[in-house]
Design goal:
- The chain has helices spanning 8-25, 30-37, 42-49, 57-67, 71-94, 100-110, 130-143, 152-162, 164-167, 191-204, 259-275, 279-296, and strands at 112-119, 174-180, 210-215, 231-236, 244-248, 253-256.
- The protein is an alpha/beta fold.
- It has two domains: 3-94, 434 Repressor (Amino-terminal Domain) (Orthogonal Bundle); 107-296, Endonuclease, Chain A (2-Layer Sandwich), CATH 3.30.870.
- The protein has a six-stranded mixed β-sheet, with helices on both faces.
- Helix 6 runs parallel beside helix 8 (152-162) and helix 7 (130-143) crosses helix 8.
């Protein structure tokens, strides 16, 4: 199986779920396991069972020995552990400029067979030009009072690196996005930046695996429902990897594999797609939007927002995220 068809995050979660079930079947608590395998703390086991750390094959083998796993289970879980570790290293080699946050999203996207995204006010990160992305990143830095873990140029390059997923020659996922008109309004950036963004969307819309739908301002969804936030749905190439939902909630992102949470969002996405313009009508809309922007676009020497935050601003205890 080529690396592109494996999601390290899903592998880690599957491994963790299996290990937790084996521990519970063996009737052992976390503290008892840590004591018997002589680990320094219970947090190591917790991170492994919750899929939050890269599995060490030796650690996994020690747990399987303790739990008395049979040969079939040992073979399957050892393979999952190796895949999770190997894929993480592959990502680091393939995307050396990627920030840790962007790498987490890349790991989730890597094994996807299909991605469906909706954003009420922005172009999704996988579709953004460098100029559009820089405006988004700089605006987040203002809200966060300049506190970010990485240089904004690196963030832009990382986001651009993730986009190769959609145009790779092997195992490119099916990608569908519903975009609100507001994502390309003047509030989103200066005309020249928006013109370049529209041009990129028009180019991507010609790809056979990409379906873009613009949602008109006057579109009405089923029962008048209005989605409160951006969200993404992921379906993986490996049928054993569960469907996953990511919800953008301003200062945090929520990721879930709970079907009780995911299914309503799948219904909403179908409402959005049905209410939006068709693929062909969206291409026409983008062409017309480009023509309108040509009339107002001028070469921009700024386009990235102010370098410093306004004198008066609200303080937030959290940190805004934007992918």
């Amino acid at each position: 199986m080529p690396p592109a068809s494996v999601s390290p995050i899903m592998r880690r979660r599957r491994l963790g779920q299996h290990l937790r079930r084996l521990r519970e079947t063996a009737g052992l608590t976390g503290d008892q396991v840590v004591e018997r395998v002589k680990w320094a703390s219970a947090s190591k086991l917790s991170r492994l069972e919750n899929g939050r750390s890269r599995p060490d094959p030796a650690d996994v083998a020690a747990l399987l020995d303790l739990y008395g796993a049979d040969e079939d289970v040992r073979r399957d879980l050892s393979a999952i552990a190796r895949a999770a570790g190997d894929m993480r290293e592959w990502l680091r080699q393939t995307y050396p400029v990627m920030t840790e946050q962007q790498r987490e999203w890349a790991q989730l996207e890597a094994g996807c067979a299909e991605i469906c995204e909706y954003n009420p006010v922005l172009v999704p990160g996988l579709l953004q030009t460098a100029g559009y992305a820089r405006i988004r990143i700089d605006s987040v830095r203002l809200v966060n009072e300049g506190r970010t873990g990485d240089h904004p140029d690196l963030e832009v390059r990382a986001r651009q690196a993730r986009q190769s997923l959609l145009t790779r020659t092997q195992d490119a996922p099916r990608y569908t996005a519903v975009l609100e008109e507001a994502a390309l309004s003047r509030r989103a950036g200066p005309p020249d930046v928006l013109l370049a963004q529209v041009a990129k969307l028009r180019e991507l819309a010609t790809q056979p695996n990409i379906a873009l739908h613009v949602l008109p301002r006057d579109a009405r969804l089923g029962e008048g429902y209005v989605p409160p936030t951006a969200f993404s749905l992921y379906r993986f190439a490996d049928p054993l990897d569960p469907e996953t939902l990511a919800i953008e909630a301003g200062w945090t992102d929520h990721v879930s594999t709970d079907t009780n949470i995911i299914n309503p969002y799948k219904v909403v996405f179908e409402w959005l797609r049905e209410a939006a313009l068709s693929v062909s009508d969206t291409r026409s809309w983008l062409a017309e939007a480009g023509e309108r922007l040509v009339e107002t676009a001028t070469p921009s020497s700024v386009g990235h927002g102010p370098a410093t935050a306004p004198a008066q601003r609200r303080r937030h205890s959290g940190r805004l995220t934007e992918r």
